Amino acid sequence: MAEADEASKPLFAGLSDVSISEDIPVEGEITVPVGSPSHDDEYSTLDEPVKETILRDLKAVGKKFGHVMYPKKSTTLLRDWDLWGPLLLCVTLALMLQGGSADSKEDGGPQFAEVFVIIWFGSVIITLNSKLLGGTISFFQSLCVLGYCILPLTVAMIVCRLVLLGGTGTASFIVRFIVVVASFGWSTFASTAFLADSQSPNRKALVVYPVFLFYFVISWMILTFSPSHSDGATDTGP
Amino acid sequence: MWGSRISQGNTFVDLVDTDWKKIAMATPEDLQFQEFEEAAQLLSANPEAVTRSARDLSSAKRERERESVRVNVNLSEEEGEEEEAELLSGQKKQPNFWSFDYYQSFFNIDTLQVLDRIKGSLLPLPGKNFVKHHLRNNPDLYGPFWICATLVFTVAISGNLSTFLLKMGDPQYHYRPQFHKVSVAGVSVFCYAWLVPLALWGFLQWRSSSNPSVTSYSFLETVCVYGYSLFIYIPTSILWIIPFDWLRWLLILLAMALSGSVLVLTFWPVIRDDTKPASIATVTAILLLHALLAIGCKMYFFQTATQTMMPVPSLAPPTGNPNITLNQS
């Protein structure tokens, strides 16, 4: 077959000198050796004990928490994205925002569904915004980063609730204010450290601003959390 | 194609000789300086038939674009840009409505452009139409969307803060986050920013179909103008925290004057050729709705002292107890 092609293409004329003798049998194996048989053949992750599966995922989540607390420009958070961490943080935050003053369903703090919707819907919108502006980060990677960077705010919520156990005076407000502002700055800084690299420099501010607004709203919800009072006489109606 | 030319060998040299003669005799319109490869230059001086077969359609399109650019080079910069944009946009293939690229074309904007458009919405310059001067055939959805989102949260948070400051002195007051107001603010702001432009665009389309001198902007440009015109309300709502009623009304007037005039300057040239009642009614409606949004926000989110203290005397014991004090703002 090679000879037939050579006849029609004078460009390959030089190759016509090579002849393949018909005496030499051309045979062999076409299969490509796979290398060492992978571990999964005998022991797939379906067979491992449940504890190992859970621990592996928890370790991955924990590792990412560490990355958020000490944000360096590493690509681990982006490469192995997972949404367990954001879900955990979102549910924790929404539950902790629930014990507030619930005398009137109208005037109280955000409901569980409102917090959930704001966090997830907000993350999706920011991710879409970043992608529409021409970002190179993928959809789920961005959701992962935004969700994990809520960690400092969740920590601030825990601290706020502990401080509120001591009283609701001006001193506790100042302490809570400082804690919330610090964690807001930390969250925004951590997420922009991961997200800003994927944009062109003259659109960076356009991508960072929605992230800033997102964490600002969450910080506002945390700061304005007011616990319910034991006596109902002090509650004013709507 | 190239293979056949190379195989022709000597004929290529002959081609070169004849082409130079043709170039020397050709008029300036024939000489197209499209590509920077020598072979391409020589080919371009040839009759069109050879050119078409040697290239695909996209490069031919590029030739036409560059042709059009060079023709416009004598015009003033303003008009030249518009014409060029029109010509180029006429040739650009519109991506499918359901594809991601379609929406990406609405976010084709840089930080500096967004800031420039915001400035344009704050400072109305007579004669400078917002759509023509700032949008320049590149309406974006980034500005309107994020300005609306910011406005929603600003109004809700400022309203909450102003209520808190108002009732701070009252020992019976217990702070409430009033989170449901965010939903109310969200619905009203987004409805205004999207439904009113839709109605206005529909109205202008209807008028322009019956009256050819009335032109209309595209739907996106209308949304864009309205979105950017809402920007003035963001600092206004923050300043509304200051609990002086006269100051709040003054701020409303100032905001209305600035952004209302931007809207009027944008839409007046379009509607002025219509019948007198229609054009006056349109402009009045635009201003009225704009004012309604501001006043509605102020009345619902920012309460004054007299409004909140009204129900208190009825709850007080009817002995005329002088312990009841009313906070005067």
Automatic annotation (TrEMBL), chain A:
Q: Which Pfam families match?
A: Yip1 (PF04893)
Protein's GO biological process: endoplasmic reticulum to Golgi vesicle-mediated transport
- Quote the InterPro entries the UniProt record gives: Yip1/4-like, Yip1_dom
Yip1 domain residues: 76-221
The yes or no answer to whether the keyword Transmembrane is present is: yes
**Transmembrane segments annotated in the record for this chain:** 81-100, 112-133, 145-167, 173-195, 207-225
- Keywords from the named record: Membrane, Transmembrane, Transmembrane helix
Gene name of the record: yipf6
Per UniProt, subcellular location reads as: Golgi apparatus membrane; Membrane
Cellular component (GO) terms are:
Golgi membrane; trans-Golgi network
Q: What is this protein called?
A: Protein YIPF
- Superkingdom of source: Eukaryota
Q: Which family does it belong to?
A: Belongs to the YIP1 family.
Q: Predominant location of this chain?
A: Golgi
Protein source organism: Acipenser oxyrinchus oxyrinchus
How does the entry describe its membrane topology? Multi-pass membrane protein
From TrEMBL, chain B:
Q: Which UniProt keywords apply?
A: Membrane, Transmembrane, Transmembrane helix
Keyword Transmembrane helix tagged: yes
Q: Tell me where in or outside the cell this protein is found.
A: Golgi apparatus membrane; Golgi apparatus, cis-Golgi network membrane
Entry superkingdom: Eukaryota
Q: Which residues cross the membrane?
A: 141-161, 182-204, 216-242, 249-271, 277-301
Q: What family does the entry list? A: Belongs to the YIP1 family.
Protein's name according to its UniProt entry: Protein YIPF
Q: Which gene encodes it?
A: Yipf2
